[in-house]
Amino acid sequence: MVNPFALTVLDSFGYPSDGFRSKSWDEFARPDAPVMDFIFTVCDSAAGGACPVWPGHPASTHWGIEDPAAVQGTDIEKERAFVQAFKYLRNRISAFLALPMASLDQAALAHHLNEIGRLEGAPPGTALPSDRRPA
Question: Which residues contact 10 (CB under 8 A, 6 or more apart)?
Fold first, then answer.
């Protein structure tokens, strides 16, 4: 089940969410599964976990953010956590979409994906890339 706060936030930013559902990784390992070019994990609990071998060996990276579903408090505080997570992911996705994919080799792409994962919203203790350190 998708968290109701996640659906509320998506709706508030104008994103459709009809038919969204939580999916098992196994669903993407079946022979009829869609082919993926990129895999992004975002839950901190997924960072050190064993990931399946994806068909086609898509590029994968971890863009950790604090789990908004773990926030305790009022509904306003919980929704605020989901809004913050949404904004962090939207910024990272925008940076990803701006990459010059056609001119990047696999190593450069991996470097950029890791750098994007360290943008604002990364969990405490995540080192910032050298060109983004506060002055």
Answer: 16, 17, 20, 86
